[in-house]
From TrEMBL:
Keywords: Isomerase
Organism encoding this protein: Pelagibius litoralis
Stored PANTHER family: N-ACYLGLUCOSAMINE-2-EPIMERASE
Pfam family, one: GlcNAc_2-epim
GO biological process: carbohydrate metabolic process
Signal peptide range: none
Highest taxon in the source lineage: Bacteria
Protein name: Mannose-6-phosphate isomerase
Amino acid sequence: MSQLTMSFAIEDLGGWLGQKLLPFWAATGFDSQTGAFIEKLDLSAQPSSEDYTRVRLQARQIYVYAQAHTLQLFPDGLALARGAYAFLLEHAWDHDGEGWFHRLRRDGTPLDRTKDCYDHAFMLLAMAWLYRAGGDPEVLQRAKRTIAFVDSSLGLERDGSFDGYTDHAVAEGEAIPLPRRQNPHMHLFEALLALYEASGEQEWFDRAGRILDLFKLRFYAADTGQLTEFFDSDWNEMAVEGALLREPGHHFEWVWLLHRYGQLSGDDSVLPIMEKLFSWGWQHGIDRRPGGVFGAYDELDQTGRVLKGGSKRLWPQTEALKACLALTERCGDPTAKAGSEPLLKSMFTHFVSFDHALWQDQLDGDGKMIAPAIPASSLYHLFLALAEVLRVLPDSAQS
């Protein structure tokens, strides 16, 4: 499948990434005066004037440009990633109490000092790839200080055993914030695998294993193949906005992450879980209506009923593509292998274009754009999915 049934070849993706997408977001998407990335662009491709940036956005962009440097897609990526990391280290690291703040003004002034688990997961991912790209020992040491903070301030125990993390740090004696979510745990799992791969240190992999155990116990329903999203303090599922939500994008994201775990560990026992998650997401979460936009819905309920009017963000499309690639690589799954091409074709028809470096971030059920801006945070999903296309599909076409 080196040549798709469309106007470009797989090999063209590398040129588009390295010559159009990454340079644009390194220039228009970066504030050279502050040394930080831009949070979002308006629909005319101008940087938003809103005076804030999220630490998770900076972390995601650091990851993208550090990996792009490592893959030799963007030689200036390491310098850019180091600059944004320096900005965060100066302004977002709590020099008095450890951990990373949630939001800053664009000049770096702390705007929200909340210590958020999701933010810390992406900071760990950013540091994993920054260390892998540049080898700076301070970065790895900061990652160790970060995970120590996560354990001490966000970690929970039940009967003396690990019981996951709370969404953000609270004062001693305060109730943990609800609902509890699987999502930050998923991204911690991603970051811990990346840190293990970057450093070779077993401790990171062992920590990832704890989250995998929690996934099997709390998040994943083996009888249905569904991934539960929201919980009360005792890990009972909670309805949100009157529904028991299922996100196809997260089903697909876990498929790819379990594949990465299997690659690093040699553990094939994750394959049946991958297959069940993919099967449920692919059966219920993909729009196949004649005349519709082929791709992954944003939200369903536990019965598979489509919610939010059938809207589709860009990021679930990228995760569906990654899941297809993961099962293609792991076991040659015919459904997954056949799914890569229409997903990629639909993405480049409805969400992104070879003509420019922008994207439509969300479409309604009729395929009309409804996103009011172009969030820079989607670059993380798009870049990783296309990097996986470049890595997997040429080899699978020859096998």
